[in-house]
Every structure is written in structure tokens, then in C-alpha cells.
DNA sequence: TTTATTTCTTGAACTACTTCATATTTATTG
DNA sequence: CAATAAATATGAAGTAGTTCAAGAAATAAA
């Protein structure tokens, strides 16, 4: 059952008794999402935080010039939301779309608040999630500031080899801050060299 | 007394009884730091999280080509650390330096862990800090992906007018992902227009 | 209050990356 | 398994931002 997957995940960060684990996962609802289906759209408040059981997602914004810019990817055992929309419960600016047929576990904003209030361990869990997320984004910002387009791609390749096959090139390019044409050139030069 | 400033800050996010507030701030130590003094350096583990009572700081990395890249600024009522070093307690990659003579309140890593264990409210406080930090960095990444150098500078100006006067141009340029020469040109073209 | 050091400015040449246009390959659908 | 759409590739021209060098201005030190 998919909820065991979430329990296993949570147990990596806080150790829960059986009844606590049960209480935690029963706050989530399983949802199936088809490829190309949106779970978040601009102007609608993002009311849920989603844990990916199976499948892949991408969050992105559309800039004034019409170009898409990817903020996050998520595959199995990652979380996805428009985090600004979710935590402040104000309208989203991002799209979140399924890249594959997927299964997610969703928790609603108010339910999450109650969980955190009910049990110190749950509060700790969400604190650790946020801290790890923040540390990750610090590394990302710094890497983006300090490295060329090619180095950013190489780094993504070695850090997230399992994402690369499942993510369209144009989406990866926009995550890494370059055009899909330029990433195409990097990839082809690269394979030529080896 | 400077610890009241921290209490006021914390009360914005969680409401503490007098004895709780006292317990919280007594975990911190006041430290004076002179301009150009470092509080964090690469290879040494960042053992403290620092709350700026008065003054200004900058965290930055030095890339392979020798160039400095700024990750964060902090003035009064902001926090600063090499967050990756602090939460994982492994060696820092960043420098953190005082831009002015400053006063900070520092909490040691283990003391923070005990605080969070001791009181659910303290755990909530650090959870909220991390969530707000993460939401902030998401906005930053997206803005960097979607806007030109000039637009990034204009946005910083309007979002953080009080930082601009206190931060050297080369540091701001490296925060915004451009050279100091280019920022100089943006600034001068700008004043010409108006 | 001169001297040294750090920061900012400006010009000119350069380059990493983009844009646009079109062809090719790969995936999706009836 | 055609037919259509979506994603990737490639050339050629363009540009946003960099680099280097040298001078001017501001800040700190003596």
C-alpha cells in the first residue's frame, strides 16, 4: 500500500510509533494523476502539499516573454508544491504538471497545521523538510552563480542521473537556466568528445 | 538590552510566556564583531547560527577562478550562517564577514537542538524560519531565471532599499549574478534616464 | 591631511549564450 | 501503422553581459 512508502520516508527523519505513523498517513489522500495533467495553476491557491509515490512532476513559471522556467522536478519520494502559495495560502504563480502517469499522496493545508499542533514529532518532521529544502536551494543558487551552463549540466548529470532520463530536455534546460538549443549543443559536443 | 530585540522578533512568529522567552534568549550569547572580521570561514564547521542585533554581514564563496559570489546579506533582525555547514555540522564552504561594526546573538548547534526538544513552540519557531527562508529562495531562483541583470537590480532596489546603501557595489553585483562593472553601467544609465 | 588602499567608473574588445528559422527525429493519437 | 504533433538538432547571425586595462573617487590608515 502506497501509504507505507510515506511512512518509510518519514521514519528516516523522525521515529514514529505505529499509532503515530497511522495518524500521520491518514491525514493524506491518494490521488492518481495522468500525464500532462495539472495539479497546480496560477491564480488558484495551492491547497495541498504532495508526496510523489510514483511518477514525475515539474513546477514552472511562464515569464512575460512567454518562456517557461522550471523551478523544481519531483519523482518518487520527493515532495512538490508551489511552496510560496502553499505556506502563505495565497494564489499560485506556478504550474505543476505531471510528466508521467503518477500517484501522489496529498495533505490539505489546514490538516497539516493540525498535525503539527497535535504532535511535536510531526512538527519536527516538517521543520527538517524545510531545512533540507533550504540547504538544497542554497547549494543550487551558489552553483548557478559560480558555474557555466556546461558545468551546471554536468553537475546535474552526476547529482541526479535518474532524473535525466525522465525529464524532457527543454524542461531541464529551463531548470538549469539555458535554452533547449544550447543544452542540445552541450549534449552533442559532449558525446562527440567521448 | 539586545536580547529584548530577539524576543520581540520571535514573538512575531510564536507567542511565548515570559519564562519561555527568558529560556529562549538565555541560550544565546552576545558577540561584538568589527568591520572586516570573519565569523565563518571555509573548512571550519559553522557551529553557530547568528541573529543580527546591529550591523551588517555578507556570506560569499570564492569560485575556482578566484571570483567572489555572494549568497546572502544580513542586517538588523536577519539571521546569517553557512546553512549547509550549520545544519549538517560539516565544514563550511562560505566566508561570512562583517560589513560594519556589528553586534550579534549566537546560538550553538547543540544548544539549539536542546531548545527545540525542550519546547514544541521553539521547534515551531525554527520550522517557520526555515519555511520562510525556503519560500524566499524559491522566489529568488525564479526571479533570477526569468529576468535580465537590469531587472534583477531594479527588483532588489525596490524590495530591499535599506540594504542598498549599506552594501558595497561589488558585493551586490555578485549577489545579483553580474560583474561590478556591469552593475556600475546599469546604475549610471539609470540615473541618466531620470 | 598626506599616503595608501579599496571601491567605482569608463572604453574597447571579446565570448558565452540566445534567437530565429528550418530540418529531423521521436512520441502520440485515431 | 499512418498521420499528426511534440521534442530535439543544427546553422548562422545577434546580443547581453564579461574581461581587461587604466584612471578617478572615496575610504581608511598613518
From TrEMBL, chains A, B:
Pfam families noted in UniProt: cNMP_binding
Domain Cyclic nucleotide-binding as annotated: residue spans: 31-114
Domain of life where this protein originates: Bacteria
Protein name: Crp/Fnr family transcriptional regulator
UniProt source species: Fodinibius salsisoli
